[in-house]
Every structure is written in C-alpha cells, then in structure tokens.
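Q: I'm teaching a short session on how sequence maps to structure, and I want students to see two examples side by side rather than one. Could you give me a first protein with its sequence written out and its structure tokens following it? Keep the formatting plain so it prints cleanly on a handout.
A: Of course. Example one:
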Amino acid sequence: MTRALRSLVIGGGWLLANAVPVAATHSLGPMPTVPLVAADYVKSALAAREPIRLIDLRPSKDYEVSRLPQAQSIPLSELRNRDSEIPRVGLVVLYCTCAPGEDWHAYELLHVRGYRNVVVLAGGFSQWVERGYPLEKR
C-alpha cells in the first residue's frame, strides 16, 4: 500500500498529514470545511510515483499552455457533466486559478455526489508556479 493510501480513512474520509481543513464565507453564510493539501505533499507524491490524480479545473486554453505534471483537464464549467471521469478511489487533487470559493463549489459538487477521496490544492495553480515546481508545457 502506498504512503498516500496508508494515511487514509477515518470515518470514510481522507486524513492527510498535510491537509488543512478551511472554512470560508459566502454571501449565504459560512461554507463547510474543504480539505486542502499542500503543494509540497503533491510534489513529493508525484516524485514518489504515488497513485494520485490531478484535476485541472481551469479553462482548456490555460491547460494547453501549462499544467501540473500528469494533470487531467476538466474545466470547472464542465465538471457537473464530466464527474464520471474522476476516479472514486485513490487520492484526487483539484486545482485551479479560480475566483474565491469556486474550488469549494467543485469540491462540494463532488462530495455531494459521493466522492470521499477529493481534496483541493492549497494555493491552487498560482502557488505551484510561485514555488517553481515542475510544469508540463505544450
């Protein structure tokens, strides 16, 4: 069993050493917590060839220019109709350069549909780039 999978499952949810639950606010009030995973953890998991699926929620044109290594493009605007492409086992990391709260909406959509293996990349694509971590480019 891999390190990512070993750090799992308490009450059916993912528990990651680097995950940070965060509550946000919305015009309708506070939103539930979203499990965040640190860019350092994702980079280490990729380097160790851990089974991890990265989902790029940015528009397709942005994905074509550059993306996290091995990421799959499912633009936020298409997520509702393409969620069946996301595995229900193994760690799935969502990322984007979304407006505040949009990554939460993506997480919540998947969570409501029964996904319990999804986390959000803390700081999103921007933080990955700021840290100088590797990108795949066209």
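Q: Perfect. Now a second example for contrast.
A: Example two:
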Amino acid sequence: MTTELTVLAWGCVLALVHVFAAVIAKTMQYGSKWNMGSRDEALPPPNPLVGRLARAQANFFETFPVMIGAVLIVHAAGLANGWTGWGAILWLGARVAYLPIYALGIPGLRSLVFLVGVLGIALVLSPALT
C-alpha cells in the first residue's frame, strides 16, 4: 500500500478521534442522560472546550474530503511519488497537531498548522495539476 493510502487510513482513525473528543467533552458538560437521549432539548451554550472541539471537528471534516480526493486522484492516475508521500505525511502531522492546539485555544499557531496541512494537500495534488 502506498504512503498516501496509509495516511488516508490514519486519517480515518483521526476522524474518529475528532468525533469522540467532541462528544466526550459535550457529554461531560451536558451529562450522559443527554448523550443517550434524543438530544431534542435546547441546551445552554457550550463551554469553551466543547466549542473548540466541535469547531476543530468541523474543520477536519471540511478538509478531509479534499485530501481523500487528492490521494485517490494521484493513486488512480499512477502519479504518486516521493513528494506526494511527503505531502500526505505533512498533512497528517498537521492535522494531528491541529486538534490539541485548537482545544488549547492557541489561535495564531492553529492557523499556521492549518496552512501546513493545506500545503500537504497541495503537494499531494500537484502532480495531477501539471
């Protein structure tokens, strides 16, 4: 299996980490009765950590499909190379770092790490655009 596809597999694991981190924090705030219920009731505003984890999760799921597409394009077209592999690794490393940085509320560093992830996607996609 190529580096890029391996990174996608780990990206799926990271997606689950995002989902569980957000729901665990939300359950800690609203309780297990809320978690196991229909979740129809209005809730008080989320505490800062719950809000940050929800936004980090949303951000991940906005960019993950782009990474999936980039990897599948270069893989299907036989364009994977050393740069696409490093781009995939760069993307994954940035996305792993992004979650705790966002959870801790470090805005400037969070934006920088996001851009590193975008650079990783660009490296993966670049052979398909030339």
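Q: What should students look for in example two?
A: Point them to this: Residues 3-40+47-129 form a domain with the Four Helix Bundle (Hemerythrin (Met), subunit A) fold (CATH 1.20.120.550). Also worth mentioning: The radius of gyration is 17 Å.
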